[in-house]
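Team,

Forwarding the record for the chain on the shared tracking sheet. I've put the sequence and predicted structure together so nobody has to dig through attachments.
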Amino acid sequence: MNVSLVGLIVGMALGFAGWFGGFGAFLLVAALGAVGFVAGLLVDRGISLREFLDPEERKRR
């Protein structure tokens, strides 16, 4: 999937959340999107949560 297409989808989701749910819904969707983005990066790179939170764990491997 193209990066600009993903950006378009995320922007539309945030826009709909802001329009229909108000600013609180906008912030909630943005925060959950950020969590999902980090989780996707971890899965793609094959990094465990422990390695992500503790950089020293990566050096030990």
